[in-house]
Design brief:
This protein has helices at 2-8, 22-47, 53-70, 76-97, 102-121, 132-136, 144-173, 175-180, 185-207, 212-223, 230-255, 259-280. The chain is mainly alpha-helical.
């Protein structure tokens, strides 16, 4: 981290000066790791019509945090990650074995998770207010260890994307064709849902449950307005998420507002700008 702090000292901002505001420097590094990850995953979320899947995972992560807190765990986020992964795998299984649409299955899991989370959080007359920070999020509280874990996830996702992105997209667009080409559709989809579960859970305390879904939908949705091929689709999604993430962090610092909400609104502006430009052609 010391190398990162020294590099930032060359920036013309008061918070970038040596020995000051380490929380802001950590938050910027967190944005640089999280946003490309969200941009990549957003492409598949939008293409696979799983726009509300991240929302359902956020609810399951909240349930895991509530369970971990009640059990007195020092690191309840670990329980949240474990429960979200189980939730994601169960969702994949039910979706493949059921005749219900993906949106219906997501709705079932989402409503179940949020009801269970609230029940556990308020069990025995407990107060829900201690979990409010997970609703809004606070990226300024991010710790270097969390950034390191998410950086490892980013590297793994990039490697997986380079190796099997074509099979992943084919399994979404045409599962039968993907199966005929030798793609293990079930395994690929399960891997993807597990990755989303880990990312959503790790980012929950940074950006908040209320806007985590928008950060996994808007980059890919906006990129569709500009992209002419699959490569541009990924590029515009990642760059859009990264630029809006940095600008959102700056806005939250100077205006004193929520970082997650600022990033989400900037991504919405990105989407509508692309939509208007495309309609004008």
């Amino acid at each position: 981290m010391e190398i990162w702090y020294q590099l930032l000292s060359f920036l013309p901002f008061e918070w970038a000066q040596p020995g000051t505001m380490l929380f802001m420097k950590n938050a910027l590094l967190g944005i640089l790791v999280l946003c490309p990850l969200l941009g990549l995953l957003s492409c598949h979320v939008v293409t696979g019509n799983m726009s509300f899947f991240s929302d359902a995972l956020g609810h399951s992560a909240f349930t895991g945090i509530a369970i971990g807190s009640i059990c007195g765990m020092a690191f309840p986020l670990g329980m949240a990650v474990a429960l979200s992964v189980v939730f994601a795998l169960l969702f994949t299984y039910v979706r493949r074995k059921s005749n219900l649409s993906g949106d219906t299955v997501i709705g079932v899991f989402s409503s179940t998770a949020v009801a269970l989370g609230i029940l556990i959080a308020t069990w025995g007359g407990g107060s829900f207010t201690k979990f409010n920070n997970y609703l809004i999020g606070d990226i300024l509280s991010v710790r270097p260890a969390e950034i390191g874990i998410l950086a490892i996830v980013l590297i793994l996702v990039v490697v997986v994307w380079c190796l099997c992105s074509n099979g992943l997209f084919l399994s979404v667009l045409h599962p039968n064709l993907a199966h005929s080409r030798g793609v293990k559709v079930g395994a690929v989809q399960a891997l993807f849902t597990v990755v989303i579960a880990v990312v959503v859970t790790m980012a929950l305390s940074w950006v908040g449950l209320l806007v985590i879904n928008s950060l996994l939908v808007l980059p890919g949705a906006a990129a569709r307005n500009f992209a002419k091929n699959l490569r541009q689709y990924h590029l515009f999604s990642v760059l859009g998420a990264l630029v809006c993430g940095i600008l959102g962090l700056m806005a939250s610092y100077y205006w004193g507002c929520s970082t997650g909400a600022a990033v989400s609104l900037l991504l919405a502006v990105y989407f509508f700008a692309g939509f208007i430009l495309r309609r004008g052609k």
